[in-house]
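Collaborator request log, item 7. Partner lab (contact: R.S.) asked for a structural prediction of Transposase to inform their binding assays.
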Amino acid sequence: MDHYCTVRDSSEALKFAERIGVAAAARELSLYESQLYNWRSKQQHQQTSSERELEMAIEIARLKRQLAERDEELAILQKAATYFAHRLK
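Returned to partner:
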């Protein structure tokens, strides 16, 4: 059986399989059904990884904003402590 080699071809084969079914697509494309299932599994895993990376990037941005706010609060408190320490002398 001929095998698709490129990512583009495997993506097109998966789209075709979604339309007509895995068994029919495998016959039409001269592929093993298992190859289509493997490609589909790999594609789903990659999408899951991409979604996780996006979630992590969003969380990192949130934490950076929160850290910046805490740094500002700390600077204000340090100035206030210095001010009151001088007033007590």
